Amino acid sequence: MILVVLENQRGKIHPFSIEALVAGQKFAKNLNCDLAVLCIGEKVEELKSQAQNFKSSKLILAKHSLIDMYSADGYSKVLSDVITELSPKYVLFGHSYMVRDFVPRVSAKLNIPFVSDIISVDFNDGNPHFSKQVFNAKLATSIEISSDQALLSFQSAAFSNDDIEEGEPESEVDFNVQLSDNDIKSKSEPEFQESSTGVDLTAAELIVSVGRGIESEDNLPSMESLAEAMGAEVASSRPVVDMGWLPPYRQVGSSGQVVSPKLYFSCGVSGAIQHVVGMKGSKNILAINKDEDAPIFEIADYAVIGDVLEIVPKLTEEINNSK
Amino acid sequence: MKIAVLTKAIPSYESSIRVDSSEKWIDESVVNYVVNESDSYALEEALQIKEQAGDDSEVVVVTLGSEANTSKVIKDGLAKGADRGLFIKNDSKTTDPLTVAKIFAENLKSENFDLVLSGLQSDDLGSGQTGVLIGELLEMSTATLAIETQVEGDKIKVKRELESGWFQWVTLPFPSSISIQSGINEPRYPSLKGIMGAKRKELNTLESTPEAQNQSFVNLFIPKNEKVTEKIVGDSDAIVAKLMDILKNRLKVI
Questions:
Q1: What is the CATH number of the domain that holds A316?
Q2: Which domain holds residue B184?
Q3: What b-and-e string marks burial along A185-224, b requiring 16 or more CB atoms within 10 Å of the CB?
Q4: Could you tell me if A219 and A156 lie in one domain?
Q5: Are residues A102 and A176 in the same domain?
Q6: pLDDT in the model for residue B14
Q7: What phi and psi, each to the nearest 5 degrees, are found at residue B219?
């Protein structure tokens, strides 16, 4: 059996979970086995109402008032119990922040390996290999499992939402959740959004993005001038925000905004995975970097190998002159 | 309070990363090892927690790996202000996060740490699991991607970063294992006094036995480029001319 775990993102199935469900449908087909889909939390109905539209063998509802809010203690206990009872061969997740928070707990509790952040699967006649990026995406690796079961999380876009098979679950069961107050040691508070006076980068047609390759905060105005000349929004990678050069609402990536502009013009961005997941959907990607091996070039349409600090001021001048 | 900070030696950004002849690992001879970036934030957070407590709290910097790669990492931690170092010697290059966590847990158990801090993930293998796995194995409370911490008596309150600008506060009882998001603080540089003093600090080496792995690398390879990428090279004038053509005539954005 394949088990897919759905995450509730403020009332809806997390988009990464839908992709995991696509993966689950493909696994079930390739390995010729059942596909169970787990809805977990207090508000399982929210997940169920959407999951009912997708093809699966079984919908499992694990509902309990003690997990009305996400809790690593509660979720890891419940999921471990479900896995122990059903013995699925593979348990599939989207590689979200929540999954990173509690799935390793399940791995340690049950002694089942967790392969995280997978980008592709080779079914390899029933003995699947899982690819993931390593060494800052400069290399990839193929991973094999030597245990009977495994937990697998998929990087966003490893599978496409478009490939979801619609239909309905063949059956539905309630899982008998055993939770007591003692199981929940950590107390969670409601999720909140920081008041951002920021810009909505998701609506931008053109984005000029800066990375630590611009070397110093002093070089930021030069990049901003290019954005101004092009009529683009300025965005950045995480290190630039961490160093305080730009405010957090300018950040693109897993912890920032996810964008898909007509052109993503990146200046000195290396292309760490956390950044790439936020911009790889851009229609056109142009990247300037002096390191020919920078992983950003793997997803770029235009790879400019050169000194961003020299090229950008000249380009800005040319654009302004051409107006 | 007794705080462990897990730090990892990883290849620097500038290092050349090449697959070695086994095709299962990188050629380490051309790599410069440095402290994993988010681990520096974890160390800084530990030092600040100790300073705020103002008592006899202890910060212990812990690393695992081969001596050649990790010695700098421990020295750096001690120079910045950690009280002592623990080096878990392991040359097996294990890539299974659960196996790594079991080695850590076995060696850290007798220390009875109140708090284990780690970076959110290593920039080499990037599994992002070690801190949580160790927490579970040592029966600690756990949280990830902390962007703020507040010690409140026998508990620690953590602001967790969620996706897309959302956050959540979680209050955890000690003992606790927490992974730290980058940007939580401003990591300090070691002072000259710190560097000199580091030599006199306690550094214990623990031998660990290799353990079986349940997930392992079949091979390492250079990722296939799925896009048709047009390479633009030359002197900056030639590049700018080419870019003007692309922006104006092909993408029509200027």
A1: 3.40.50.1220
A2: 2-207
A3: bbebeeeeeeeeeeeebeebebbbbbbbbbeeeebbebbb
A4: no
A5: yes
A6: 83
A7: -165, 165
**Cα torsion angle, A239, A243, A244, A245, sign:** negative
- State which of A128, A150, A183 marks the end of a domain: A183
B91/chain A closest Cα distance in angstroms: 19
Cα distances (Å, whole numbers) of residue A247 to A196, A267, A279, B119, B126:
10, 17, 18, 22, 26
Name residues of chain B where pLDDT drops below 50.
Answer: none
Range of the domain at A213: 201-322
Q: For chain A, how long is the longest CA-to-CA vector?
A: 70
Residue A254 domain flag: yes
Q: What ipTM does the predicted assembly reach?
A: 0.92
pTM of the predicted structure, to 2 decimals: 0.89
For the stretch A103-148, pLDDT in tens is 999 999 999 999 999 999 999 988 999 999 999 888 999 999 999 9
pLDDT score at B13: 83
Contact B230 A255 (CB under 8 A): no
Q: Tell me whether residues A301 and B165 touch, CB distance under 8 A.
A: no
Cis peptide preceding B175, ω within 30 of 0: yes
| pLDDT (0 to 100) of residue A281 | 86
What's the structural domain count of chain A?
Answer: 2
Q: Is A191 a member of any domain?
A: no
- Count of structural domains within chain B: 1
Whether residues A139 and B123 touch (CB distance < 8 A) is answered with no
B224 lies in some domain: no
- Mean residue pLDDT of chain A comes to 94
DSSP-derived letter for residue B190 is P
Of A129, A187, A295, the CB nearest to B171: A187
- Are A151 and A293 within one domain? no
Task: List B residues 6-35 in contact with A (Cβ-Cβ < 8 A).
Answer: 11, 13-14, 16-17, 19, 26
Identity of the residue in B168, B218, B233 whose CB atom sits nearest the CB atom of A129: B218
pLDDT for B223 equals 85
Q: Tell me if A193 is assigned to some domain.
A: no
- φ and ψ of B195, to 5 deg: -65, -45
B68: CATH: 3.40.50.620
Of the three residues A127, A148, A183, the one that is the final residue of a domain is: A183
The answer to whether A206 contacts B231, with C-beta atoms less than 8 Å apart, is no
What local confidence, expressed as pLDDT, does residue B169 receive? 97
The per-residue pLDDT for range A243-301, each reduced to its tens digit, is 999 988 899 998 788 898 999 999 999 998 889 989 998 999 999 999 998 999 999 99
The predicted pLDDT at position A196 comes to 61
d(CA B57, CA B5) in angstroms, rounded, equals: 13
Interface test mutation site (partner A, options B14, B39, B108, B229, max chain A beta carbons within 10 A): B229
Q: Picking from A27-31, A64-68, A198-202, B15-19, which range would have the lowest pLDDT averaged per residue?
A: A198-202
Note whether B128 contacts A117, CB cutoff 8 Å: yes
Please indicate, yes or no, if residue B58 is contained in any of the structural domains. yes
